[in-house]
Amino acid sequence: MSEQKSCGGTRKSVCEFVERAYGTVPEYLWAKFPQYAVLRRTDNKKWYAVIMNLPKSKFGSGGSERIDVIAIKCVPAERNILLSLKGFMPAYHLNRENWITVLLDGTVDNEPLFALIDKSYELAKDKTRKQIRTEPTSWLVPANPKYYDVEKAFAENDVIIWKQSSSVIVGDTIYLYMAAPYSCVLYKCKATEVNIPYEYSDGNLSMNKVMKIKRLYTYDEHAFDSAVLKEHGIISVRGPRSVPYGLRCRLEKASENK
Fold first, then answer.
1. Is 133 within the bounds of a domain?
2. What is the pLDDT of residues 137-189, one digit of tens each?
3. Which of 53, 123, 140, 169 is deepest in the core (most CB within 10 A)?
4. Are 176 and 236 members of one domain?
5. Residue 237: domain span
């Protein structure tokens, strides 16, 4: 995996990543364009990327040779920054403010490309109306040992309180990502109680609502370190976020086989 991550992004590397991360199988919808593939979420069927094979002339290069590209969703605030980088161009046949085109000729490294695809996948979530979720899901949640001794807390009790994201419900799986010096996913927990009023502030952390989480499993420090997370497009964990499909499978398998 590390060898693959060090090279530039291609159609093959992208297709392998989205299948591993989200369970996405490319859809080839147009007989006239057999190399065009749509990538869509399985829950709401919305597109989060389109892989195309376009003439180089579309991007200012001479000749009729065709090149693979991927169109992904982006936020307008990041668009101009991305366009200043090599391998990024305005969207082709899509909303130019909310989409951007990336060359798949090895120009852009897999690591930043996968991170942008992960963002595009999140941007394709339903936002038209707030839905009440009833089915449990999984979250990757950061923990900073500089401010809170998680190991000591779990040594004293398997159930502890934790700052709650408004999206968490009872039954959700919480994977705690420990910041440096650990830089790894260390604990698998379950949310057992949510929406508990709790006023706290110390200059580094403020809370007005917490949840109770129960430790289910402790991983080896080297099993899911930052290098493993990067394989699944996760560059940093600054706040609660959903767990990519492929990583979730690996985390579940590791905790079940011990």
1. no
2. 899 999 988 888 999 999 999 999 998 876 789 999 999 999 989 999 999 99
3. 140
4. yes
5. 138-256
Q: What is the pTM of this model?
A: 0.57
* CATH number where 94 lies: 3.90.1150.30
How is residue 168 written in tokens? 């968490």
d(CA 229, CA 185): 9
The type of residue at 132 is I
Cα distances from 5 to residues 100, 132, 205, in angstroms, run 22, 37, 35
Question: Residues 237, 71, 245, 240: is their CA dihedral positive or negative?
Answer: positive
Q: How far apart are CA 107 and CA 57, in angstroms?
A: 17
* Other residues' Cβ atoms within 10 Å of the Cβ of residue 141: 23
Cβ atoms 105, 68 nearer than 8 A: yes
d(CA 93, CA 113): 20
What's the structural domain count of the chain?
2
The long-range contacts involving 91-98, CB below 8 angstroms and separated by at least 24 positions, are 92/52, 92/54, 92/58, 94/50, 98/73, 98/74, 98/123
Copy the structure tokens of residue 126: 């339903």
Q: Is residue 231 part of a domain?
A: yes
Shortest CA distance to 71 belongs to which of 14, 30, 153? Answer: 14
